[in-house]
């Protein structure tokens, strides 16, 4: 038995010795798996931030380098419909009203009563309906115009009344030739637009304004006898206009009698440009660009703590700085808030608001038996020392068991600052901003290091309730079609005063950075 | 890097400190895992899982005892959990395979002996091998083994007795261990 026991122990010892000598070297993939598992959060964070920044840069670059075209209207000349030779139609071309006439419509105007007063009912409005008005040039950066024009696209059932001005001229042997001798009817609709953009639409030279048929009955007798083709007062594009004193003669050389209304180009435009008139008088005025905005934002943040100090009166408590005795790591927090903004100039906006923030960081500590500790403080007088006694359960160096202490802070702040646009256009902008944030600490029951650097205690009276924080940020701003602006970009915050009151010799300042995401809406 | 510095670095989740710790202890720990595992790949999986637990639970190390012993306990527990999860306790012994391995009769260096002893241990059935590893090499008591493996303490004792006998037979067959008559002389000689 002895021998077997002896052998048994020897055998086991042999096994232990030999197996201890044996080593195996793992492949590299084992370490990669360990490392990847331990640092997953950082990898996801880096991956997510990289994708976000890459996406923002991609869209920003695309928009800045090749801005998307905003074609509010399409290129298309106004087409003439139902233009007919009044003679062929037997003089009755009610059913074939020129769109030009139809567009002009009628408007009662005492200043142009000689030939032009017609009731709306006398104009065949069948051609009026369903006509799509298209302007030739796109308005690229005129959101207000787009709103106006989009309303204009829906024509009212009844056309507005515009005085019908007919210039009567005697027929030539070839009326059509006479017609062709006239310049093409120019429909000038754009001269009075704010941007001074002219919109031209032409009819074929032979086309006549056939609505004069219905106008015939109201025209003075001589015009009816003249059996003329009647045209509207025209604007000759580029070739001058019919001036007021000019008298047209018929083929017999007799001056046409009766009332002939001569108009200049500007008056022509105003009369026949019903589009503009309608827009001005019937459509609501486009709202002016405001200067007031409201912003809402949220920002996940990471907060770091830095410690300094350790001097009490004229003596240093411990060797080295407080941070040399501590092991802490940043924590994740957030900010949410709203700001009122006022645009001072095109590029500068001032803002003021209200913000709620949550900050957190953790500290390594060690559990200890509760003990009373005395903190020496600087008194208000400077050279007299004060003290504070507290109960400490945790130590800053190795003791029973390690524990992570978490300090959470809730603050209310009133940021005041400005935003400056440094690059970009109306749609996409790059901005920088700076704020000063007076803040109020809503709670103050975190742990802090005692002046001997050995213990952690809670002493709410030592926390400074009012503090000041500076903030810097840069962000991209993108304007949506509905007028809202999206903003996103990094921000950095730095607490300017210590978290503790001035009497406490150890100074703690919090620094944080985060990604701020906001929405801005104009206030009418 | 001192062990204290490595510990502090690992607590701060420093990748450099973690790598240093891994480089120091992974060769031995892989050998531990290899004695429990079915093959090298399984052993590396156990090692990876074990070290992840080591780094995750670093803050629970209370400076009581050697750091290597603490790591080793985590690795062993990881191996046991892995075996229980994969239900590898029902494999049968393959003596034919063990008998087919040729061993040179001349004395071999100690390290080769170590490798061969480990390989012989791995020949044992998984249940025998586990109890043998835990009792004879890792130093757990039968009571602790019974708790870890969810078996009776008496079962642990009987398993160990059979495992030891079987291992001896394998070692003798492989001429790593001398025959019974020469045991005592041989044991003194190898020291």
Shape of chain A: flat
Radius of gyration of chain B: 18 Å
Question: At the third CATH level, what is the topology name of the largest domain in chain B?
Answer: Arc Repressor Mutant, subunit A
Largest sheet: number of strands, sense, barrel closure of chain A: 12 strands, antiparallel
Instruction: Report mean pLDDT of chain B, rounded to a whole number.
Output: 82
Strand content of chain A: 25-35%
- Going by CATH, the homologous superfamily of the largest domain in chain B would be Winged helix-like DNA-binding domain superfamily/Winged helix DNA-binding domain
CATH class (first level) name of the largest domain in chain B: Mainly Alpha
Residues in β-strands, percent of chain B:
under 5%
Q: Report the top-level CATH class of the largest domain in chain A.
A: Mainly Beta
List keywords for this structure.
heterodimer, A: 524 residues, alpha+beta, Porin, twelve-stranded antiparallel β-sheet, flat, disordered N terminus, B: 191 residues, mainly alpha, Rna Polymerase Sigma Factor, Chain: A, Arc Repressor Mutant, subunit A
């Amino acid at each position: 038995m002895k021998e077997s026991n002896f052998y048994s122990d020897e055998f086991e010892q042999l096994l232990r010795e030999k197996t201890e000598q044996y080593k195996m070297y793992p492949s590299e993939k084992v370490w990669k798996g360990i490392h990847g598992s331990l640092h997953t959060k950082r990898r996801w964070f880096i991956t997510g931030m990289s994708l976000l920044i890459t996406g923002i840069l991609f869209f920003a670059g695309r928009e800045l380098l090749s801005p998307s075209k905003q074609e509010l209207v399409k290129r298309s000349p106004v087409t003439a419909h139902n233009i007919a030779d009044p003679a062929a139609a037997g003089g009755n071309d009610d059913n074939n009203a020129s769109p030009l006439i139809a567009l002009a419509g009628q408007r009662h105007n005492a200043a142009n009563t000689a030939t032009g007063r017609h009731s709306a009912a006398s104009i065949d409005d069948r051609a009026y309906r369903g006509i799509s008005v298209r302007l030739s040039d796109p308005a690229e950066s005129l959101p207000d115009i787009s709103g106006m024009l989009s309303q204009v696209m829906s024509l009212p059932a009844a056309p507005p009344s515009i005085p019908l001005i007919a210039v009567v001229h005697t027929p030539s042997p070839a009326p059509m030739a006479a017609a062709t001798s006239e310049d093409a009817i120019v429909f000038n609709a754009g001269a009075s637009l704010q941007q001074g953009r002219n919109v031209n639409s032409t009819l074929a030279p032979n086309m006549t304004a056939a609505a004069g048929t219905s106008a015939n009955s109201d025209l003075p007798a001589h015009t009816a006898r003249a059996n003329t083709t009647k045209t509207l007062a025209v604007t000759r594009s580029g070739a001058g206009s019919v001036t007021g004193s000019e008298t047209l003669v018929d083929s017999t050389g007799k001056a046409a009698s009766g009332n002939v209304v001569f108009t200049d180009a500007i008056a022509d435009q105003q009369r026949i440009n019903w589009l503009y008139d309608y827009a001005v008088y019937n459509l609501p005025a486009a709202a002016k660009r405001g200067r007031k905005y409201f912003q809402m934002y949220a920002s996940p943040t990471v907060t770091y703590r830095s410690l300094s100090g350790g001097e009490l009166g004229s003596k240093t408590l411990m060797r080295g700085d407080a941070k040399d005795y501590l092991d802490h790591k940043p924590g994740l927090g957030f900010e949410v808030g709203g700001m009122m903004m006022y645009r001072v100039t095109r590029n500068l906006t001032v803002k003021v608001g209200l913000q709620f923030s949550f900050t957190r960081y953790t500290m390594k500590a060690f559990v200890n038996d509760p003990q009373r500790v005395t903190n020496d403080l600087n008194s208000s007088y400077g050279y007299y020392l004060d003290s504070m006694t507290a109960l400490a359960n945790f130590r800053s160096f190795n003791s029973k068991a390690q524990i992570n202490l978490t300090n959470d802070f809730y603050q209310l702040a009133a940021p005041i600052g400005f935003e400056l646009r440094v690059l970009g256009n109306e749609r996409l902008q790059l901005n920088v901003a700076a704020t000063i944030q007076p803040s109020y600490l809503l709670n103050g029951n975190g742990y802090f290091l005692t002046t001997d650097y050995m213990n952690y205690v809670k002493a709410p009276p030592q926390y400074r309730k009012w503090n000041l924080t500076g903030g810097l940020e840069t962000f991209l701003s993108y304007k949506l079609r509905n007028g809202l602006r999206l903003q996103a970009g990094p921000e950095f915050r730095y607490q300017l005063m210590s978290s503790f009151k001035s009497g406490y010799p150890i100074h703690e300042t919090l620094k944080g950075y985060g990604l701020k995401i906001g929405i801005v809406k104009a206030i009418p | 890097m001192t062990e204290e510095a490595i510990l502090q670095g690992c607590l701060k989740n420093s990748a450099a400190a973690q790598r240093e710790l891994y480089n120091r202890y992974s060769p031995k720990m892989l050998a531990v895992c290899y004695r429990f595992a079915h093959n090298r790949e399984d052993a590396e999986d156990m090692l990876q899982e074990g070290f992840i637990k080591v780094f995750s639970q670093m803050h629970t190390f209370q400076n009581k005892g050697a750091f290597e012993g603490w790591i080793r306990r985590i690795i062993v527990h990881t191996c046991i959990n892995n075996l229980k999860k994969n239900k590898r306790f029902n494999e049968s012994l393959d003596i034919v395979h063990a008998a087919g391995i040729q061993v040179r009769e001349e004395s071999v260096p100690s390290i080769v002996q170590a490798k061969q002893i480990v390989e012989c241990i791995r020949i044992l059935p998984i249940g025998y091998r586990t109890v043998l590893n835990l009792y004879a090499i890792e130093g757990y008591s039968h009571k602790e083994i019974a708790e870890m493996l969810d078996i009776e303490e008496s079962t642990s004792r009987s398993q160990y007795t059979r495992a030891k006998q079987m291992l001896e037979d394998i070692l003798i067959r492989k001429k790593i261990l001398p025959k019974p008559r020469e045991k005592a002389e041989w044991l003194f000689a190898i020291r």
